[in-house]
Structure formats: C-alpha cells, structure tokens
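Retro notes (design track)

What went well: tokenization of the new backbones is finally stable.
What didn't: we kept losing track of which sequence belonged to which structure.
Fix going forward: every design gets posted as structure first, then sequence, in one message. First example under the new rule, 137 residues:
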C-alpha cells in the first residue's frame, strides 16, 4: 500500500511499531523525490550526494562525533554497558556485551512541524492540579 505525501510516495510498513502513522520512505524514493524537484541535476549526481551525506554521518558517528543538522536534529552515539540479561524463552541468564548505539534527538523545528495542529499539552502544574482535583471527593 502506498500513499502520497509532500516527501514522495510512502509505503506502509506492516510490522512498524515505532511510527504512529506507519508510513516510511526508503532511500531510493528520497533520491527520486530530490531528482524530481531539481530537474537541473542528474539522477546519478543526486544519488551520489545522498550517499556521501549518509556516509559522512555514519563515519562521524563511528569516530564518536556528534552530527547536528540545525532544525532537523542531532545524531549521537550512546554507550550501553555490559549487563546480565535473560533469555525470554528459557529464563536463563546471558551476558550482554557492552555496545554503542546510535541515538537521534529531533530538533525544535522538526518537532514543531510534526506537532503542528496537535492539541497543545497543558502546563505540567495544571495537569497535576487537574489530577489532584479528580481525586478529591
């Protein structure tokens, strides 16, 4: 199943549990969208540009650097210490080695764009007051 959006055609992921909308764009669709909106650029040049940008982000993260794209977000690497885990099937303890995982924090402009039209959340103090009032007999 596909749908149209300002970012191109999006495919619905059947097993995607992280996105509430369930739509995703793959890299080739991103390249096609950029090529279409910039007819003066060759498709192969756009593909090379996108690949270089992604490769630079990956290399910077591999060095332990932080990559910040103003208004979009920041990529960082987080350290997960070694720990004891459990096999969910057998319940046996297993050692989980330390690892480094990529982390992305959205920028303010992206968050505002995603939440545009969403009902504003009440201030935290007002939410606590409303909850306390609901409990009062």
């Amino acid at each position: 199943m596909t749908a149209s959006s300002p970012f191109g055609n999006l495919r619905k992921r059947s097993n995607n549990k992280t996105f509430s909308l369930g739509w995703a764009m793959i890299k080739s669709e991103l390249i096609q969208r950029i090529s279409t909106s910039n007819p003066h650029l060759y498709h192969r040049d756009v593909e090379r540009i996108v690949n270089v940008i992604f490769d630079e982000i990956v290399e910077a993260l591999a060095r332990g650097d932080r990559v910040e794209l103003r208004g979009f977000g920041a990529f960082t690497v987080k350290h997960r210490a070694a720990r004891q885990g459990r096999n969910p099937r057998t319940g046996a303890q297993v050692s989980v080695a330390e690892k480094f995982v990529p982390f992305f924090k959205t920028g303010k402009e992206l968050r505002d764009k995603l939440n545009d039209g969403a009902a504003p959340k009440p201030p935290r103090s007002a939410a606590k007051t409303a909850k306390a009032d609901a409990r009062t007999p």
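Added context from the reviewer: DSSP finds four helices and eight strands in the chain.
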